[in-house]
Structures are given as structure tokens and as C-alpha cells.
Amino acid sequence: MKRRTALASLLLAAPALAQPVKLRIVVFNSISDGALFVALEKGWFRAEGLEVEIGQLDTGAAIHAALASEAVDAAGDSPAVALYNAARQRIGFKLVADKGSTPSGHGYQAIMVRTDLVDSIKSPADLRGKRFGLTGWMNGVANEAMMNKLLTANGIAEREINFVNLSYPDVLAGLGTKAIDAGILIEPLATRAEELGTAKVWKRADEVYANQQYGVLVYGPGILKRGAAGDGFMRAYLKGARFYNDALDGKAPRAGLVEILTKYTAVKNPALYDRMRFPGIDPNGGINAAGLAQDMAYYVASGRQRQAIDMSLIIDQGFAQRAVRDLGRYG
Predict the structure, then answer these.
(1) CA 235, CA 241: separation in Å to the nearest integer?
(2) Judgement on whether residues 84 and 40 belong to the same structural domain of the protein
(3) Of 327, 231, 316, 220, which is closest to residue 284 (Cα–Cα)?
(4) What are the φ/ψ torsions at residue 118 (nearest 5 degrees)?
(5) Domain shared by 217 and 256, yes or no
(6) Contact present, 240 and 36 (Cβ < 8 Å)
(7) Among candidate residues 161, 176, 208, the one where a domain is terminated
(8) What are phi and psi of 184, to 5 degrees?
């Protein structure tokens, strides 16, 4: 089937709901929330008969509590141990679409090495004994799974690296003060570190772990009870994802995407978007379920998670599949 752009997809939308439905969504306000912001700004939720309010929560625990209480209907979240532990408590949410991944060219996270150490840290083996800043260390987060893939492939044990749990801003600062030797940064901090001259990109996430699923769109009980609303929301969301991809590929105005992102995210400098890498967002909503299961196996084996859960019980790709049926497959 011929590839459809976001504009063409607009012509294929299913009928809107008869009565407006109010939905409250929470996100971290990151660039990987871009498809949501595009759909909101373009009026595509409203065209589906949805009155969508997007707010911000800063922790997984707060997001899961809000979903459980039905204070919010859906959320952008990270597939990590905190989410899986919440699932074990039978909150009743579903992972319904990709909201952040690492296909080729979308290394939104980067392993950074101090500029003065670039010549001495050339291979993964050279990380042995180094102080490495990692946000969420020992909490069972996606960046740990990425590092595990790198270390395991090169015969290096985690205990051989001196990992330090630091926030992303503190990783940036630590590289500058030489308190750490290396660490993981997200954009635009990775680009900022290079521009400051304090660190260099050593490896991008898409080089280390291709197609890793580090962000997901989650439906809570509030929206799952209203199937038509969930279907309409997904159609609008995928239109947003398609515009996002079209803009990055030169098939839609990139400036239009940047304008929306500067309005809604914490990255307010439009010029930064010309220099940094963007997260991947699947225009068909596909979730890398096999990758999530692999990451969970690592969390369990390393003691970060008590026991595995059946991923098929918390992943529901039906909403995305129906949206693709209505809009046509992208790509």
C-alpha cells in the first residue's frame, strides 16, 4: 500500500462521538510526548469528539496512582519496574502504543564520555572502574536495560562499573566538574554537553539497543471503559505521530512541529531542534513487546523486580490496530 502522510490520514477518520467526551491525560512533558501535543494543537482530538486536557506529573508513582483512581484517563509512561509492580496490583491499565523508541537515527539518549577521557575510553572494556552517571540506577529503568545489553555483549559485569544514580541535569554537571567519567544524557542535554565542550557522544541509544521501547502510551480504567473514546483518541494520536514523522522526514513542515514542541515541552529554544536527535514514535503505534519481555527478564534476574508478569495481560494493541485499519497503514 502506498505510504500515506498525516494530511492524507485526515481524510480517512471515522465519525466523531455523538457527545463530547472529556479526557484527562498526564505526561512528563518530554519530546517523546510530541504526538500527543501535535494532536491537541491540530484539533484532531476535538475532531473525534474528545475534549482532551494534558497535564504533567513527574513520577511513575504519581502517574500510576492517578490512573488507578481514575483521576486521569491515560498517560505517557516508561515501561519500567515501577509500571510492572503497579500492574501486579491489578490497577487495570493497558500499554496501547509506542511513545518513545530507538529506531535507527533516533538515538534520543546518548552515552557521554568526558572530553578529556575520549582518547582513553574507546571500547566498552575501557569503562571498567569508571564512575558512570545513570538516572534511576538500581530502580529498573530502560537505561539500565540498555547498558546491560552493551555490557553483556562485551563480557563486562555491572559490578565492574562504578554506577552512580544521578538526575540528568546532575549527570551534565558531573561531567563538567569531572565528578563522573561518563554517563547517559537525553536530548537536548547531550547536545548541550558537546557544545559546552565537557563531554562527547560516545554511543547513541539506537547504536546500543536498536528499537528499545522506553516510552509507552497507557490507557487507564477510565478510558478502557469507554471503548469508542479510546478508539477515537488513538486515531488522533496516530495522526499526531504521523505528522511528527512526516515533519522529521521532510514530508510536512518541520517548523510546524518545532513550534508545537517549543510551546508544550521544556525545550524552548527552537534552534536546538536543528542540532539534536529526536525520539522515535511509531506512526502505526507498534509496541516492541519482545523487547519489553527481554528487559523484564533482566530486571528479574538482577533483583530489580521480584517476579515477571505476563506481558500479554498488560499490552493491548487492539486500539492501534483499529486506528490503522481506519487510517491506513503508514509506511
Answers:
(1) 10
(2) yes
(3) 327
(4) -55, -40
(5) yes
(6) yes
(7) 208
(8) -105, 130
Structural domain includes residue 1: no
Statement to judge: residues 300 and 232 lie in one domain: yes
pTM: 0.92
Question: In which order are the strands placed within the sheet that holds 213-219?
Answer: 50-56, 21-27, 74-77, 213-219, 94-101
Residue whose entry in the numeric block shows the C-alpha cell 529554544: 269
Phi, psi of 231 (to 5 degrees): -70, -45
For 266, the domain range is: 6-103+212-327
Give dist(CA 9, CA 142) in Å, integer. 32
pLDDT by residue for the chain (331 residues), tens only, comes to 334 444 444 444 455 566 789 999 999 999 999 999 999 999 999 999 999 999 999 888 999 999 999 999 999 999 999 999 998 887 789 999 999 999 999 999 999 999 999 999 999 999 999 999 999 999 999 999 999 999 999 999 999 999 999 999 999 999 999 999 999 999 999 999 999 999 999 999 999 999 999 999 999 999 999 879 999 999 999 999 999 999 999 999 999 999 999 999 999 999 999 999 999 999 999 999 999 999 999 999 999 999 999 998 999 999 999 999 999 999 8
> Which residue has cell 536495560?
145
Beta bridge partner(s), residue 183: 112, 133
CA 319 to CA 217: how far, in whole Å? 11
| 129 and 47 belong to one structural domain | no
Reference 27, options 94, 100, 80; nearest CA is 100
* Nearest one of 6, 31, 24 to 215, comparing CA atoms: 31
Query: Which is nearest to 32 in space by CA: 281, 238, 317?
Result: 281
